[in-house]
Structure prediction request, 117 residues.
Amino acid sequence: MGSLAYAQEGAAAAGPGPLVQFLPLLLVFAVFYFLLIRPQQQKAKAHKAMLGNLKRNDEVVTAGGLHGKIVEIGETDVRLEIASNVRVRIDRSRIETLLDGKARKDSKEGRGGKEKG
Prediction:
């Protein structure tokens, strides 16, 4: 009676460690953070600083597209003069852009330079 020798199967190879499995997820999160989240935070910080530095006679553009000059600044709202003797009150946070001298000149040229300044 002969004995049969069966070859033993080797132990199953261990799968990748838990860190290696989560590495792609961590890389995707890092890409989203640096391409989306961080720039948005920096933009919000710059907008908040711009709102804090507003003063009378600054020319601004609102989120609704109104162009005007600040005539009065309150704690939460601003009064804009959008035409001669036409003043509107808007929420301070709705101011999108503070126009500098170059931007004002460009916007006047875009309308044919017919605006009185």
User: Anything to note?
Assistant: The chain has two domains: 18-53, 55-112. The chain has a mean pLDDT of 84. Residues 108 and 117 are 9 Å apart (CA to CA).
